[in-house]
Amino acid sequence: MKAVIIGAGRGSRLRHLTEELPKTLVPILGRPMLDSILDALAAGGFRRSDVVFVCGYKAEVIRAAYPDLTYVENRDWEQNNILLSLLCAREHLEGGFVATYADIVYRPEIVADLVRSPHDITLACDTDWRRRYVNRSQHPETDAEKLRADAAGRVVEISRRIPSESATGEFIGVMKLSARGAAQFLSAFEAARAVFSERPEFREGRSFRRAYLIDLLQHMLESGADLHKVDTHGGYMEIDTLEDASLSDAWWRGAI
Questions:
Q1: What are phi and psi of 49, to 5 degrees?
Q2: Does the pLDDT at position 256 exceed 90?
Q3: How far is 187 from 63, CA to CA, in rounded Å?
Q4: DSSP state of 154
Q5: CA angle at residue 13 from 218 to 132, to 5 degrees?
């Protein structure tokens, strides 16, 4: 099983912080976000030799700083989005994988919980997610990748359009797929690409080329796939804007 970090984009809303650095190397809590992610992956049993990084913007900077990772390059990162970025690492997915966004910080035990999950597709869900939106003016709750789940932990919907009051929590961008789950995921990707790649819309106004990861996950749910969740009550934050970076210390301390 491999760990795949999806980190091709620039993160333009971090403005000057990403002029010379890829987004994942922006210091948060005193260290690059990537260091925190690698610590979390290590808690799940992944050595650096198991980690595949999907690079794009400032690829040469991250390759030089972390030469012990395996790299695949998304050469079209300015035109596509998270789903197609992940699929740049397709050759590393078939044996099962843990995927993580590159612009997040989260407790290491989250990955360990995902790896222990008996289910083929398991998503990490922050149940304390709304606390981080109270003073967040540039990234509203309507942008959160929310999910709903039943009492048994089975995910029934994943979409930004879920009303906040109806959401079980926020998908934090970290998920585990067993070899069987990876096969289901790749099959669903190919089927969706065959139908939607030439159409103007795949889901929620987005083309297939610009699809988010959650777009394919929701498509799978509607086709009968079983997705489950593991919870974290806080211990997660996404750094998308300069405002997020300025709030990160207080978020992590639970001060706001």
A1: -70, -15
A2: no
A3: 31
A4: B
A5: 65
